[in-house]
Amino acid sequence: MQLFDKTTPIAVIGAGAMGSGIAQVAAAHGHRVVVVDTQSAALENARKNLEKALNRLAEKGSISPENAAEILQRIRFTTEKSACAGCGLAIEAIIENLSAKQAVFRELETLAGEDCILASNTSSLSITAIAAACRKPERVLGAHFFNPAPLMPLVEIIPGIATANSVVETSRRLVDAWGKTTVLAKDTPGFIVNRVARPFYGEAIRIFEEGIADAATIDWAMKEIGGFRMGPFELMDLIGNDVNYAVTAAVWEAFFYDPRYKPSFTQKRLVEAGRLGRKSGKGYYDYAPGALPPEPVKSRESGEEIFFRILAMLINEAAEAVFWQIASVEDIDLAMTKGVNYPKGLLLWADEIGLDKVLEKMRRLQDEYGEDRYRPGMLLKRMAREGRRFYQ
Ligand code: NAI
After folding, report:
1. Domain spanning 195-386 has what CATH number?
2. What is the residue extent of each domain of the chain?
3. SS3 assignment, position 236
4. In the chain, pLDDT over 70 holds for what percent of residues?
5. 10-184 adopts what CATH topology?
6. Mind telling me the catalytic residues?
């Protein structure tokens, strides 16, 4: 099996937000990195942003000014993909488009050495479909970093159906050595985080659409009662309603239109209106200077009802992911706490509340609405019946 150390050169294809962040992480851990992009302007931009980010770290005292300069010196920016020759690992972070990614992987296969591991940072495409473009799909896998890559600790490692175990192990060990927390996920839509987190947004919007509560009240309930760092509407405004809608729509389609993941008209209309959130100045909230934030209705009783409805949906989703062997119980909890900062792993939370209570909530919702969206998962039902817990 191939082993990596700090002398292994790394290639990053795509110099956008993710590519430059990943390059920073690898260079900060001693690797020489080559960043390749078709656009010189994107490369120049990435270089400037990296310089700024590293200088900021030096000003804060997180790294020395010499260290900041060394990290930047280790990174080379080029439009020539042939610069990938000799790299041990190439991480692709170009636009989210299957045929564009397949074309890049086909090129990488001939330009990089026979032993180079080829990883994709895709958040919604099938790793197996990307790998299918290659002669040696066994060296292709997913390495899904979160934004911003230098700060977010989680990386989902996703083998395609042909990926060799040694490729998974080597890559995982390397990314772990970069100080990241890696979790292993099956190659299914949304992997772990973008699948299990869907109800955090979707059920919150549903409660809003039904007129049960406004955005500020739902956000208040999730933070104040649930302990989440941000409420769903604040978070959607931060992520961008266009980006969040696109992920929801992609997961829904990829699951053959399972009603659990159905996007909402509320979010679609916001996107159509250009109310994308913070970046456009308006989303669920108004970010104009001087705009007053709306006051939540701070009723503990209805707040608890809102929080538990969303939490039960999240737990049901996490339990479904265990049932379908998307990842282990531990990795699902790690993914949600490290990837999206949940205050607690959902499956640990389920144990603490009692699976019977979560199941009862799901059954009540399903009974009231009569919608498949609220069906309790098989594993949740079986475990509740047998009085089992996710952790012993
Ligand atoms: P971006 O749009 O900021 O950057 C993409 C870069 O790829 C651009 O600089 C573009 O010029 C370059 N590019 C396009 N085609 C190319 C090609 N054939 N060869 C070389 N360079 C090419 O995109 P971003 O946000 O950095 O995302 C990159 C990937 O990471 C996507 O697959 C996305 O789904 C995934 N991702 C994005 C996250 C995010 O929050 N932005 C989080 C996790 C994954």
Report:
1. 1.10.1040.50
2. 10-184, 195-386
3. helix
4. 99
5. Rossmann fold (3.40.50)
6. 123, 144, 156, 194
